[in-house]
Structure formats: C-alpha cells, structure tokens
Amino acid sequence: MTRFLLRRLLLAVPTLLGVSAVVFATVALVPGDPVTAFLGPGAPAEARQALAERIGLDRPLPVRYLDWLGHALTGDLGTSTSTQRPVAALLLPALGQTLTLTAAAFALVLLGGVLLGTLGALRPHGWTRRLSGAAATLAVSAPQYSVALLLTAVLAVHWRLLPAGGTHDAFGPGGTGDLLRHLVLPATAAALVPLGLTAKVHRAALSGVLASDLADGLRARGLGRAAVLRHCAHNASPALLTIGGLQLAYLLEGVVFVETLYAWPGLGRLLYDALTARDLPLVQGGVLLVATAFVGVNLLVDAAHAAIDPRVRS
Amino acid sequence: MTQHLRIRSRAAAALATAALLAATGCASTSAGGDAAGGGGGGGGGTLVIGATGKLPNLDTVIGGAGFEGKRLLSFQIYEGLTRYELLKDTDKPPQVTGALAESWQVAPDKVTWTFALRKGVTFQDGTAFDADAVLFNLHRYLDKASPEYTDALGAAAKEYAGDIASYRKTDDTHVELVTSSPNGHFPEDLAHVLIASPTAVRKSGSANFSQHPVGTGPFAFASQTEGQQVDLVANKDYWRGAPRLERLVVKALPDPAARTAALRSGGANWIEYPNPDDLESLKADGAQVLSNSYDHLWYWILDTTKGPWADVRVRQAANYAIDRQAIADNLLHGTADPAYQAAPRATAAYDQGDDRYAHDPAKARQLLAEAGYPNGFATSVTVPTGGSGNLLPVPITEALQRDLAAVGIKVDIRTTDWTTLIGAEAKGEVALGSDAIAQSTTLFQSEALLPLFIGSKSPFWTGHYANAKVDELIATAAANPDQSARQAAYRTALRQVTEDAPWLFVVNDRNPRALAPSVHGLVQPQSWFLDLTTVSVTK
C-alpha cells in the first residue's frame, strides 16, 4: 500500500512539471503582452522597459521558466502584473472560495447521485427507475447556463428566496447562515451535470451487483433487503469512487462559469480575469495550483480505491 | 517645440493609457461634490454598487488594468490638489476646481505654478494635510531615491505627473511645482495625482499600502475581498461635509445578467451599465435609469494610407452611409446618442452646427463615384468582442456592415479580444491586419489626451492621419493658460478632423446606470466621474 502510494506520488512530479512547462510556454505565446495590459498602449517607452525588466520579460523563455520554477518551489509565485500584489496572496483566498463552492457542490453530487442511482437500481422496471433516469438525463443534458439563469430568475429575482450572487449580503452582517444561503444556487448549478453522470454510473454499477450471484447468495442466506443493499452498495462503490473523483476534479476547474454568473470570487474567475489582463505570473501560479489540486484529488481517489479494493494494490 | 511636443506626448500617452483602459469597461472614479453638496451626514444608509469590471489596486494612482474602480473607489478615497466639479452645471462638461489646493497661479514664465493649500483638512487617519504631505506623495511618485518609491507607482504616476520637473514647499500651506514646459491644463492633470496620508504609507509600508489605503476623500476604506468587493465608510470629517451615505460597497459583477439579477433580487441597489435590452423591464420594475452624455466616442479608426480610405471623399462617403440614429435607438435603446462629428457632445470642442454627417446614402454613393469607386470596394475591420466602454461592439459593427454594404462597401469583420487589440495598437499595429479598428475612447475632456486621439505624434497612430494644421493648433493651445482660448483652438482642430473624416464617427455613450427606487440624490454629470456625497438610501 505504501509503495503503491509512493509510486503514485512520484508520478505526480513529472505531471506537474509538464503542466507548468506547457502553461508557461502557452501563455507566453498568446498575443498581447502584460506590459501593455498593465500600462496601456500609450505608456512611455522607458516605463515599459522598466516594467519588462522588473518582471523579467527581457530574458529568454527557458531562463524565465527555470527561475520561476525555482521560486515556486520555495512558495514564491511572484507578483501579479495587473494588481501589483503577491500571486500567492491572491490565489489562496480564491482557492478557499473555490474549495467551499466545490465542497458544497460535491456534497450535492454524492447525495443526489447516490439517491437517484439507488432509486433507479432498486426496481429495474418500476416508475422510480423511469423517474430517476429522466432526472439524471435532464441534469446531464440541460444547458447549465440556462438552468442557472432560470434558477436565479425564479428563486432569486421573482420570489426573492435566495441571493442572486456573491458570498454574503453586502447590506447585512454576514455569518455562516448567510454563506450557506449564498451557496445554494451556485452549488446547485455546478452540481447538475456531475450529479446526473454520477447517478447514471452508480445505477449501472449497483444494478450489475444486484443482479449478480453475490446478491442472490446474500438473499439465499436470508438477509433482508436493506442488508443486501448495503453489501451490494459496498461492491458497487469502486465505480462510484472513480466517477466521484473525476467529477470532483471537474468541479474544481469547471466552476468558472458558475463563479462568473454568481459573482463567486473563486479561482476560475481569478484566472479568467488574469488571462484577459495577460497577467502571466497569476495565470502560471493559478494553473499550477489547479493542476496540483487535480493531481492531489486523483491521488486521494487512488488511495481510497486501493483501500477498499485489494486488487488495485497488486 | 520638438522638445515640448515630445514631453507633452509622453504625459499624454500616459493619460491615453488610462483612457483606453477606461474604455475597457471599468468603472471610473468621482471627485467629490461641491462645497454645498454632501452635508447632512449620516443616516443615509448603505449603497451597494454592482460594477462591470475588476476592482483596482487601491494604492492611489496604481489602479491597474481598468478604470471602473477609479470612478467608484480611488476618487472616493483620495483627492488631488484639484478635482472635477461634478454637482454644478451638469448640462455642461465639468470644470476643474480646487480640492486640496484652494487656489493657484502660474508665473509669467508659464511653467512655475504656486498652489495655496487648503487649511484644516485631515486625512481619514487623523493626520493633518499640509505641504509636507504633498511633497511626500510627489517623492513617492517621482523620486526613485525615496524609500516609498515603487516602479509600479512611478510608471502609473508618469501618466499625470510626468511633466513635473521640480517641486518644493515655500511654506506650510504653499507648494511650488515647475513643469518641464508650458502646460495650460496642468491644474486638470493634477486632479489625477492623488494624495495619500504619509503616516499611513509609512505605517503599512509602500508595498502594502493598497491593503490599508488612507486619503482625504469623502469615503474611508473599511475592508475588501481582494478584487471582488470593497467596503468603504463615510468620512465624517470630510472637509466638504460628511457624505449622506453611511456605507459604500462596490462589488465586481462582470456578467450583465448577474448585475441585473443583483439589482432585481436586492443584492445591490445600483448597477453600472445595465444591458440595454434589460432597461425597459428594469424601469417597469420601478428602477430608476439615469444617464447623461459624457466625453465618449465609439468609432472606427480608418487607415488613411490604405487603398480607397486614402481618399477623403471615400471616408466622408462612409460617414454619410451609416444610420447612427437607428443604432442608438434600436440597438442601444437610447443609452447612446448618434455622433455626427469628431468632438463628443460633452466636450467644450463640440459645436452643434458642425453635426455634418447625416444619414444620406445618395450622397455617399455620389462621393464614392467621384472618388472612382462607383461600385464600391471591399475592406476589413478588427472589432474587440468586449469592453464595457465598447458598448456592444460586434452588434454595432454588424449594423454598420449592413449600412455600408448598401452603398457598395463590403466589410469583412474580424473579431479579437480587447487585450490583443490594444496590445497591437501600442506597437502602432492593427490586430489581424485590417484596414480599420472599431473601438471607443473616453476622456476627450482631458486636454492632455487630445494630441493622442487626433495628432500625428500619437503613440497609437494606427490610422496614420496627419494634418499639420491640427497638430499646430493642439500644440499651441496646450501651452496657453487661457482656457477659453484653448477651447476655441480645440474646436477649430476638431472641425478640421470632422471634415477630414479619418474615423467613422458612430455614437456617444450616455453612461447609463440603474438604481433601486430607494436610492436618492444622485447628480449625474457630463463626465466619466461621479460625486457620491449627495447620494442617500432610504431603508
């Protein structure tokens, strides 16, 4: 088990290196430069030169990359060109916001996905199966942007039950309850597609196990429905884990539109703004952070997988 | 003269930066109101403004990529020696008046300015404002040897303070600033050179001052969620009288649908630039929609050295071919006015009698025929996909494409993002190599910027328009301390530009904003900037 995890951990290093190199090169190739984006097109040549030197744009790309990598290893991700603030100081609060939103959405995905999937698997021919199947299909295929707008229009604008955006009410004192209220709409919008997918995968896996000899054997031994379901769910859980891990990673980086639509100050929005401002240090630091989170989630999923399924370890 | 032009164009370049960035869709800042404004103090509730772009770095002049935060934040926290008067005479472009300076005079040498500082003003942290505070800030911006100087500050300050050659205090309430060449609009430039509390800068350190900004403006910094929301509170000791609001919150809401939803759901009680399509329904729901003309122009820069555009008759023909009123009415729902000439309506250079280019396709065809293009020609334009100062760039361009096709000018539309477009412009290039650029610019009221827009010494001279008469008029005017003489010269220069038609003049934006019924007392000036001291919110 330890060896397995160690190997996975070592594999993460070249992955992250590769990601950072590709991002560095790609961002450098995008037209439009950070000096112009920050100083504007009419800036005096000497000011442009000074800024270019200060952020190191006058040196060759590989040298800049190695320099950046060296600093990144010590936790110094440089200074954002568009805001003149340390990159880490911008990324960490945004990461916190994204993790909050992701956690809320992921809770919905697991809860809803398992519920719908189980409902669908329990009675292969009943109306619950059709209903849960339809709900899952709707969640996957409904255009997220329109659903999000519709939810906002009805729940926030028309009935004024929930806030339309942001993390807390600017008129009030804030607090956890306020944060939870603000999480409902963005988390729901972000959860829709992964929830539908998770439901479908879980239903298929659970149906398979319920129809297998294992389930027949359990029933033959006189176990009740609930006990059979519990054992079968355990056997179906690797599939749930795999899809859940994938969806979690998807949520981490896929919430950009949700963050924009609901003015959620997370990583996605920060990176989008950074890209439009050609803020290279911020983009590079942000992508590295997201990639690290992605690799980390995968590592966790692998570890969990190995823990519940001995076959994976060998 | 060469030296003079070089220096002016540098300072102007810096300002132009600001102007173009402003057009990218940030909010702008407002100087305070007038001495009679404000007052009342307290009890005025909380104003939550949904802004269209990112929020700026709050360290004085730095701002960053975007002017929206400047209108709503930097100018609320800080003031310069001068400010725009935004509460009086709102049917005319704003005048510059005293802020931290009460009065000023220029010596006969036209470069030595003496400013008499306002007495009894304190910063929001209680520090007294005096001549030493002015010197401290100028050191911080201009003197690389100052411990508080940073490259970012230096680069940003060049935009507005770039031609200050020397400065000193003559006593505690007087400072003397010397410009490197005569600059008639120096007092206006100084409205942008913001003054921070020296005590606060030393306390937080120059690099961290953006986290603890302190100025003399009507609102004091309280807290922020970086880049997303800034909370300000009323400066009860503001020298013009405490603002009526208790709190001012600015939120970044870049998505137009999110802004509209925020206003409707009560998450904000003021939104900047609502989607024109939403205006009718917002009004039906009781929202107040306010707008006023300001110094904005949406236009195409035609490359006057390329193909048919080199012929003035062709450029005039294009200007006669387009139906600006239809664009203003149908596409923009009255949030913009048709622009029939080079000078935006809300500038001293605007002359109604010079509204030359009515919609006249017959005349356009005749001019094209005279120029040797009876069957028209094919051309191309690069259009940015966004930028709130750019209104609805692609739909407007498509409307223009239809109008121009009607007289035989076939336009190939090439879209790109705004950063790419201005990045190329900075190098004097047109992104995607088109014959024209579609864009918008504001701050035509800023005299320092005029040479950039219409002079041949502009650093983003992509249209290659050059008229020696225009250059001469602007250069001579800029050095003249007499404002009315300067304005007369600008009017003459812009009349010439209108006739030469180096651009396709399209519309002047009206700066629309939507306010909840509970918001009262906003005075909307003919300016990019706002005075929020008279605003209050009922509970």
TrEMBL record, chain A:
InterPro entries in UniProt: BPD_transp_1_N, MetI-like, MetI-like_sf
Keywords, in A-Z order: Cell membrane, Membrane, Transmembrane, Transmembrane helix, Transport
Q: Name one GO cellular component term.
A: plasma membrane
The highest taxon in the source lineage is Bacteria
Q: Which GO terms describe its molecular function?
A: dipeptide transmembrane transporter activity
Chief location bin? membrane
Q: Does the keyword Transport apply?
A: yes
- Where are its TM segments located? 99-122, 134-159, 179-197, 239-262, 282-301
Localization annotation: Cell membrane
Identify its membrane topology class.
Multi-pass membrane protein
Is Oxidoreductase tagged as a keyword?
Answer: no
PANTHER family, A to Z: DIPEPTIDE TRANSPORT SYSTEM PERMEASE PROTEIN DPPB-RELATED (PTHR43163)
According to UniProt, the name of this protein is Glutathione ABC transporter permease
**Natural source organism:** Kitasatospora phosalacinea
From TrEMBL, chain B:
The residue ranges of the Solute-binding protein family domain are: 96-432
MF-aspect GO terms:
peptide transmembrane transporter activity
Q: Which Pfam families match?
A: SBP_bac_5
| One example of a Gene Ontology biological process annotation | peptide transport
Give the matching InterPro entries. Peptide/Ni-bd, SBP_5, SBP_5_dom
Please give the name of this protein.
Answer: Peptide ABC transporter substrate-binding protein
Entry keyword annotation includes Signal? yes
Keyword annotations for this protein? Signal
Signal peptide positions (record): 1-27
Superkingdom of the source?
Answer: Bacteria
Alphabetical GO CC annotations of the entry are: ATP-binding cassette (ABC) transporter complex; periplasmic space
